[in-house]
Specification:
Strand order of the largest sheet: 1-2-3-4-5
Number of helices: 6
Structural class: alpha+beta
Shape: globular
Radius of gyration: 19 Å
Helix content: 10-25%
Number of strands: 10
Distance between the termini: 55 Å
Order of helices and strands: HHHEEEEEHEHEEEEH
Strand content: 15-25%
Amino acid sequence: MEELLHPRSDSVRRFLRRWYGTSDESSEPAFPNFGNIPPELIEWHKAAASVGVPVTFQDYPVKPEDLKRDADGMLVFWIENQQGFYWAVNPESADLQVFDRTNTSDYWRPTGENLERFLLHRTVHEALLGTETKFSAVAPTEVLESGVLNWFTVLPFSPAVNESLSTRWLCSSDALARVGSPPVGYAPPGQESWMFTVAAAPGTDLLKYRANLEPYILVRPRPTPFVEPPF
């Protein structure tokens, strides 16, 4: 996934095309002139619309027609699913650094990513969440370092405010991976372990990534079948 390892202006479009299939650019809606909204943001919406299927599954972007600057000059463009966090950019800044804040604070904190990098980061985050082709394992450090991580290269993404500070994103030629601290109660006592999730586009075979992790893979709960009530 060269578009992730060496990000450039069309990386979101190229990644979406790889993950969801060929992008039909002729189907892109015509966006009106939204004033001083950064072109990187409009390009993200165009690329996402051209896919023809949803590309966000948890956190979500503000619709172009709803984008407007707050009294402090910040343009909120991305919102956490429970509206606990907001991400914004000052359209007049030269480097378009992205900031975040909680829903109970007016203080904007730098994320460490500019707008272009942030949008690519969140697109990857949502792709991993949305696919059914994935597995997670809680594995000791030595297991991951003994060969599993050799398939992957670390991506240049800073941990988001709603991610653990230990979170790292990685990719291989056909898969994404996320590694971070395991949830409370999941790590074996006395052993340094990590939650490791591998995800890919539908139809991808993840067997080679599972091989050394089978004893540590978490079983995904099956949906509870509906039972007709006895009345």
